[in-house]
Design a protein that fits this description.
The chain is α/β, with parallel strands linked by helices and 250 residues long. The chain has helices at 16-22, 54-66, 80-85, 100-103, 144-151, 162-170, 181-190, 217-232, 235-244, and strands at 4-8, 30-35, 44-45, 51-52, 69-75, 91-92, 107-111, 119-125, 136-140, 155-159, 176-179, 196-203, 209-212. The protein is globular. 38% of the residues are buried. This is Amino acid ABC transporter substrate-binding protein. Its main location: other.
Length: 250
């Protein structure tokens, strides 16, 4: 069963029912944006179960620029694209990388941070198991990282979220974990040498971007224009520094 919960942006301190009532008198256009809430620093949940992270802050800036309001929808990763196409929400902001296969089904915005044609994956493990040969590798299902492991003929142990894959490795259920460096690197460094970075792999994919239904090109173009303005105003760099710089506690 797909998990789906809605939150109006800017009302995170209120219970959900109160938040929805408080938004009733707002005449601004509401755009429903799906996120996973399990892929920090792009998106996660705070102590009250409300969305937070780079993409939540970015959407807040985009919506302020466009004069619209975001309604966040928490959705499970495997059904993200099918539920977008079914009309359950208007866009996806969930650290979703651009791939040729996805681009045949949905429309993407420009990348958050343009990169030269490749994404990357990172292997993280412990000092007791540092070779990928014969290793059981935890990975989030339905991702570019899962597909890359399969293409390499490695033993993939599937998990519903990147957080669950990392936990499986920590709990000894897998020998190592493979996933986004944005997600894994800081966690490995902050583990105070309990986890080690074993290596990186280049993956033929674009960077994360916002996903839309194929026919919603006008909405995509509005978001693209806002992203370009936020980049030129230095706001993208500020959000990048806030969410992606290594922790000073390392």
């Amino acid at each position: 069963m797909t998990r789906r919960r809605a939150f109006l942006a800017g009302l995170a301190a209120l219970p959900l029912a109160s938040a929805l009532r408080a938004g009733d008198g707002d005449t601004r256009e509401v755009i429903r944006i799906a996120t996973e809430g399990a892929f920090p620093p792009y998106n996660s949940l705070d102590a009250q179960g409300r969305p937070q992270g780079f993409e939540i802050d970015l959407a807040t800036e985009i919506c302020a620029h466009l004069g619209i309001q975001a309604e966040w929808v928490l959705n499970d990763w495997p059904s993200m694209i099918p539920d977008l196409l079914a009309g359950h929400y208007d866009a996806i902001m969930a650290g979703m990388a651009i791939t040729p296969l996805r681009a045949r089904r949905i429309a993407f915005s420009r990348e958050y941070f343009p990169r030269p044609g490749t994404a990357s994956g990172m292997f993280v493990g412990t000092h007791s198991f540092q070779s990928t040969e014969g290793a059981l590798i935890a990975v989030q299902e339905n991702t570019i990282h899962h597909d890359h492991l399969v293409a390499l003929g490695m033993k993939a142990q599937n998990h519903p979220t990147a957080t669950a894959a990392l936990k499986a490795m920590i709990d000894g259920q897998a020998d190592m974990v493979f996933g986004s460096p944005d997600f894994l690197e800081n966690r490995a460094l902050r583990s105070r040498r309990m986890m080690v970075i074993l290596g990186r792999e280049e993956i033929a994919a674009g960077g994360p971007a916002i996903a839309f239904r194929p026919g919603d090109t006008a909405l995509r173009d509005r978001f693209n224009a806002a992203l370009t303005t936020l980049e030129s105003d230095g706001i993208l760099d500020r959000l990048n520094d806030k969410w992606f710089k290594p922790s000073r506690d390392i």
